[in-house]
Amino acid sequence: MSKPFPRLGRRRALQTAAAGAVALGLLLCWLLPLGEEPPSGTITFSTGTRAGVYQKYGDLLRKEFRKDMPDLKVKLLTSAGSQENVERVATGKADFTIAAADAVETYQQNHGRGADQLRGVARLYDDYVQLVVPADSDIRSVADLKGKRVSIGPVNSGVRLIADRVLKAAGLDPGKDIQPRAEGIDTGPRLLGHGLDAFFWSGGLPTDGLKQLAERSAFRFVPIPPSLVSRLHVDGSATRYYRATNMPASAYPSVQNNTTVPTMAVSNLLITREDMDPELTEWLTRTVLKSRDGIGRHVHSAQLVDVRTAIYTDPVPLHDGARRYYRSVKP
């Protein structure tokens, strides 16, 4: 029979507690800049559509910013998605945002106002393209969308940018060969089978809007095969950010029946402008990285944020404040 563990005396217990407090203090010194007052003021953060990952992630980040920078007010703006987000930051309508890399490069290639001022804070996680149809639909491929009522996302959304390109790669003209609709993830799911034959969505896995749809209605995903992604790459430019992959079976278990779905993914970036205060940007970068696990319990995609890959913010260079943070934690 094993012997019971000896009971710690009061003095020993106090010593142990004190040692733990010191260790915690050292950890906090690593997480937060020593001797600096947290930034204050007001910033605007552009998120995305309701029921989308950008909106939920932005709301959770605001709560984390409040913990580290209690005197910093963060105003959240909903948006159509990546294209509008990039334009807002570039033109000063917002200070920080999340946007897909292809939308950032497209804005640069179109010589959008302020494009040269865009700077990266962190590479976050990948968006997965999700083409959704009713379970009993006769649509089995992207080409089968011809003549159908298809939501290609709101104007100025990242979804619209991707859907147009995917349709063209499949030989379809988005303006002529389908009946285009502009629904977002907040409205598209409830219209599926009731005015919509299919809808495109590009977002982190899983997305709340689709999880909720799975609870009340049967649907399935239409595959986007590697051959179609290869045709996208022929165009060059921003399509180089698309990579062929599989949606894991665990994304929507009740829908996927333990099978993966061929699709494509694109990385998301947290971006700002060159003129953003370096100290503020450093603090914000630190909070984004250290809050990964806490936010990841609510937004699964956030679990993929990693300091080793966060520095790769191509096609925009790192902001000086973000670079300062990454250098401070470099082993």
Outline the structure in words.
Residues 1-30 have low confidence and may be disordered. Strands 1, 2, 3, 4, 5, 6, 7, 8, 9 and 10 form a ten-stranded mixed sheet that branches. It is built from 13 helices and ten strands. The protein is of the alpha/beta class and 331 residues long. Helix 2 (53-68) links the parallel strand 1 (41-46) and strand 2 (72-77). It has helices at residues 10-31, 53-68, 82-90, 101-109, 158-169, 188-191, 208-216, 226-234, 253-256, 278-290, 292-296, 307-310, 320-328; strands at 41-46, 72-77, 96-100, 118-134, 149-151, 179-181, 198-203, 219-221, 243-247, 261-273. The chain starts with 9 loop residues before the first helix and ends with a helix.
Largest sheet: 10 strands, mixed
Mean pLDDT comes to: 90
Computed Rg? 23 Å
What structural class should be given to the helix and strand makeup? alpha/beta
Share of residues in helices: 25-40%
Number of strands: 10
Query: Which spans of ≥5 residues are poorly predicted at pLDDT below 50?
Result: 1-30
- The coarse overall form would be globular
Number of helices: 13
Give the end-to-end Cα distance, rounded to a whole number of Å: 46 Å
Q: Tell me the fraction of residues in β-strands, as a range.
A: 15-25%
The helix/strand order is: HEHEHEHEEHEHEHEHEHEHHHH
Could you give a short description of this structure?
The chain contains 13 helices and 10 strands.
Identify the notable features of this structure and list them briefly.
331 residues; alpha/beta; ten-stranded mixed β-sheet; 13 helices; globular
